[in-house]
């Protein structure tokens, strides 16, 4: 069976400390707990799409260390096709140092490790996976040239191409926009992409309009508890977020992207797919950790 959703992206081991608050510069803070959890934006989105009903394949790199084996196994446990997940000799696996505070907010530092060595050729070799896909997803935790190659190849094959521009420090290369069917930034990413402040629905509309003017067809700005703002040629639509008591927001955006992609891949109309992704993300924030927090389809059935 062809994987309907193919993710080209990162795998990280998340080293997660919980503390009352995030440390200030120069401060040593006593934490409350520590856990080692499989994560990485690419792998999280692959797991979300798989748990939420899609056949999924992943293209990415791990290092030749114990974390690499665990990260690969975590995907295999979800029946994700890992033929495209390579082990890089002499390199560590990607790492994410995460602090989560009492209000469920986090701060994250990533060390790319093997993710930094994912080259366009690594994707080219698995072109058959892209050919069989309905939906192709990228993020920005692997080299830009690999993202650029994948977006362009996805467009050439006529696939639905999603870019979650995370993490993001500035505008994207202008020639990327025309290859993207759905650009899905959060508030801070939308701000970094456009240089416009994004704090609420009105400012999200302004940022989405700017991004659409650069050639991307559909923009979904995720706004946390304020929901999501969808912009396309017809205009704007606001999707309010389900109200939940958050425990840990890590991977909420990834759960949204993976859930949205899984729904699109089975032919769900895009508005319904957004609402489905939101329900999945809302459930994920009520649980700790990246991949452990991602719900299964059965948990979302009414
Ligand atoms: O989006 C959450 C993810 O960001 C974490 O799992 C961490 O690995 C970083 O990539």
From TrEMBL:
Keywords: ATP-binding, Carbohydrate metabolism, Cytoplasm, Kinase, Magnesium, Metal-binding, Nucleotide-binding, Potassium, Transferase. Requires a divalent cation, most likely magnesium in vivo, as an electrophilic catalyst to aid phosphoryl group transfer. It is the chelate of the metal and the nucleotide that is the actual substrate. GO terms for molecular function: ATP binding; metal ion binding; ribokinase activity. It catalyses: D-ribose + ATP = D-ribose 5-phosphate + ADP + H(+). K(+) binds at residues 248, 250, 284, 287, 289, 293. Residues 3-295 form the Carbohydrate kinase PfkB domain. This is Ribokinase. It comes from Pseudomonas alkylphenolica. The gene is rbsK.
